[in-house]
């Protein structure tokens, strides 16, 4: 069973709202209280409920990355760079590899939209039309 914010607050001897302020990074709390709440959260194994937080903030901190494949060296590089940069900005990447299957691509896009991603990046090969007669 997941540890709740109420349990962390009780263990730290503070109110639920104070524990919430500490765990969300507010500066309006004394250092002593911060240490008590952070210690209780760590000791109990508290993990914030990102879904509940997302409902409040209307942000998921998720970015969907839909890519044709990872075999192509360019796509592999793009994926690595995007993941690193987005991580530095506090985002998690949901990687979806389509293998050029339009049905799978549609399913992934629907799933990402259902998860209310904050952004969507689609990487696909650029094709140029063939010229006939050459």
From TrEMBL:
<keyword id="KW-0238">DNA-binding</keyword>
<keyword id="KW-0805">Transcription regulation</keyword>
<feature type="domain" description="HTH lacI-type">
    <location>
        <begin position="3"/>
        <end position="57"/>
    </location>
</feature>
<dbReference type="GO" id="GO:0000976">
    <property type="term" value="F:transcription cis-regulatory region binding"/>
</dbReference>
<dbReference type="InterPro" id="IPR000843">
    <property type="entry name" value="HTH_LacI"/>
</dbReference>
<protein>
    <recommendedName>
        <fullName>HTH lacI-type domain-containing protein</fullName>
    </recommendedName>
</protein>
<dbReference type="Pfam" id="PF00356">
    <property type="entry name" value="LacI"/>
</dbReference>
<dbReference type="GO" id="GO:0003700">
    <property type="term" value="F:DNA-binding transcription factor activity"/>
</dbReference>
<dbReference type="InterPro" id="IPR028082">
    <property type="entry name" value="Peripla_BP_I"/>
</dbReference>
<keyword id="KW-0804">Transcription</keyword>
<dbReference type="Pfam" id="PF00532">
    <property type="entry name" value="Peripla_BP_1"/>
</dbReference>
<dbReference type="InterPro" id="IPR010982">
    <property type="entry name" value="Lambda_DNA-bd_dom_sf"/>
</dbReference>
<dbReference type="InterPro" id="IPR001761">
    <property type="entry name" value="Peripla_BP/Lac1_sug-bd_dom"/>
</dbReference>
<keyword id="KW-0678">Repressor</keyword>
